[in-house]
User: Fold these one by one.
Assistant:
Number 1:
Amino acid sequence: MIPTMEYLSSTIVIVNRDDREIVATLRALESQDLSSVDRVLVVDASHGRLDDIRLQFPQVTWINYLGDPAMRTIAHQRNVGWKESNTDLIIYLDAHCIPVEGWFATLTQPLRDHSYDVVTGPVRMSDSTAHWSYGTSEREERKDFITANVAIRRSVLAELGGFNEEIGFAEDTDMSWRVRDHGTAILCEPAAAITHEMGGYVENLSRSHRYGRGRTRLYRYHHLPLRRFIADEKDGVVYAIAVASFWFPPSWLLPLAMWWRARKLDGWRTVTYQFAYGAGILREALWRRA
C-alpha cells in the first residue's frame, strides 16, 4: 500500500486502455482547490503506453494496473484505487470528464463537515444527442450515483466490500443500490457538475448497448421481479420492443414514432442510440451470461 497517511482525500481517475483524454482531465484538476492533503491518483491499465503523459504530471501518483486489458476491469481498478489510497475521502472522476470551477470543494464539503458520507454531482453530456444524463438543478438526495462523479467515505466502501467485480457492467449502480440499502443517504450537489466527453458516434452506439445490457444484468443479479424492471425501465422496454418489431412489419410504426419524438435531437442518431440500448436489453435478457 502507498504510504499516504498525511493525505485526507484521493481523487481517483481510472484509465482502462489508452485514454489520452486524461490530459484534459488532469489539467482541469490542476485548477481545482486541492490542498497539500488532497492528492490525485491514476490507476493506469495502459501498460506503459501513456508514459509520456506521466512525465507531464509528476505531482500525480500513478498506479500500474496489470490486469488483463481484454477484460472489463473497471470495478477491480476502482477497488485497487481506494484500497491503495489509504485516505478517508475517495473521489472518483472519469478520464473523459471535465469538472466545473469549484467542483472539488463543493463535492467534498458535505463529507468534510460530516453531514453526508456520499455526494455526487450532475453529469452533462458533451454530445447533445446522447439519450441520457444524470442529476438535476436542485440540491436533493438521490437513490443512485454515477462513479464518473462521486465522493464517498472510505469507511462506506470498506463496510460494503468495495465494488462488485463479478457483475461486469453497471458496477456503479450496483454500489449505489447497496449504499442505499445500507441506510446511507446520497446527496446530489448541482454545483459539482462535470462534462463527460462522449467520443464519436460508434463509441456512443457501443456505450448505449453496454448500458442496456448492464441495467438488465443488474436487475437479474439482484433477483428483482420483472414488474420492477418494467416499472423502472419504461423507456428501455419501449426501445427493446422497437428492436423486436423489426421482425413484425405491422409494428414498424413504433420506430417511426421514436424518430418523430427525437427529431429535434438529431433524430436518427438519437434513435440509433435508443435501438442500441434496447438491443442490449434483449441481448442480456435472452442470452444468459455463461
Number 2:
Amino acid sequence: MSVAIVELAAWCDEFAAAEDRLFVAYGHWAHQPAAPGVQRRCAAACLTHGERAAAWRARRPQIPGLAPAPVMGGVADPNLGAIADLDATDANAASLLARYRAARERIDERLDAPTARLLDTILATP
C-alpha cells in the first residue's frame, strides 16, 4: 500500500513542522544550565531534528497550486507554548517516532522508495 501524492505532501509538511518544533525545543534545552551530559544530548538532538526537518522539506512533492507550509526559520513557533520541561520534549520526540512507524507501514518501497528510505533512516537513528 502507498499514499496519494497530496497526502504525502501533507505528511512532509506535518513532519517538517514537528521536527522544527523539536529543533527549537532541544535547542532551548541545549542552552540551559544543566549537567554537561544533558546539554550535549540536547545539542545532538537539536542537530538531528533540524536535519530531519530539512529532509522532509526536500522530500515534499512540488504540486502546482498546493503551497508548502511555511518554514519556521529559527523563530520560536508561537504554538509551541512554554517549553515546560525536558521530559515533555522527549515525550513529543517519542510520539513523533511512533507516527513515523505508522507512516512506514503505509509506504510501499516499490512505489515510493525515497520516502521509504527517509523513514527507514529516521527509524534506524532515533
